[in-house]
Structures are given as structure tokens and as C-alpha cells.
Write a structure and sequence with these properties.
By secondary structure, the protein is of the alpha/beta class. Helices cover 33% and strands 23% of the residues. The chain has a single domain (6-35, 50-125), classed as Nucleotidyltransferase, domain 5. Strand 2 (16-21) and strand 3 (26-31) form a beta hairpin.
Length: 132
């Protein structure tokens, strides 16, 4: 994988798509949880929140996929992007400063996701630094 300066993560509880990219090209890594999310239904008068616990191993694998990216945008349709951020704060605090934004995006195609990331970083840092 080429060592790009910029990265975008699109994440939900079923997969994470991590792109390292420049102006004209990109590398993609897909990370899947080892135990896919099962829907948990909360029943009345039962203890517990009715939510599946965060998959820390999955989040760790996503962090590994980010590698040395210096400018990172976290995206996704629901809470997984925020849970990933919390994981980073707890387990990889040096990475937290490299997160430049967190945005809600439904289920974009890879092309739409990359176009969004390039537009975001053109505004954020001018996409001036392309490789590390």
C-alpha cells in the first residue's frame, strides 16, 4: 500500500472501508468484524441495555488499517464512527489528533466516498501534502 497523507474511513457494524488517497489515486482496505453484529432485542423487565457490546478487536483492526495516515476523516451512517473515535481515545490517543472530522454518511459508493473525502480535505488542508 502506498503511504498517503490522507485517509477516510466509512464504518458500520458490518464492515469498515478504509481509503488512503491522493488527488488521482487511492488504496482501499476492507475490514470485517470477526463476529458480525447480531441484533439484540430488549425485553421488558430484563437487565441490560439491549445493545450489542462494542467490538474492540474490530476497531483495533480498523486502526491498524489506518497505518500512518496523518489526516483522517471518520464517516458512517450511525454510531460506529463515534464508537471508533472513543476506541481511539482510549487505546490509541496519539491517533486522536490526526482525526480531522467526523461526518454522517449513509451508504455511498466508493467513488462518491472518495469524491467527498477529496472535497473535504481540499477545504481542510488544500490537499497540499499527498504522501508521507
Amino acid at each position: 500500500m502506498t503511504d498517503y497523507y490522507h485517509a477516510i474511513v466509512w464504518i458500520d457494524h458490518h464492515e469498515a472501508r478504509v481509503f488512503h488517497f491522493g488527488v488521482d489515486d487511492a488504496d482501499k482496505v476492507i475490514v470485517h468484524p470477526k463476529n458480525p453484529v447480531q441484533h439484540i432485542h430488549h425485553k421488558a423487565n430484563e437487565i441490560g441495555s439491549g445493545h450489542a457490546p462494542e467490538d474492540q478487536a474490530f476497531f483495533h483492526d480498523v486502526v491498524q488499517a489506518l497505518g500512518g495516515a496523518a489526516a483522517i476523516l471518520l464517516t458512517g451512517p450511525a454510531n460506529a464512527k463515534n464508537e471508533l473515535e472513543k476506541h481511539i481515545e482510549r487505546h490509541d490517543p496519539q491517533l486522536k489528533a490526526r482525526i480531522k472530522g467526523i461526518e454522517t454518511l449513509d451508504h455511498p459508493s466508493d467513488g462518491v466516498l472518495l469524491a467527498h473525502a477529496r472535497k473535504y480535505f481540499k477545504t481542510e488542508d488544500g490537499m497540499g501534502t499527498q504522501r508521507r
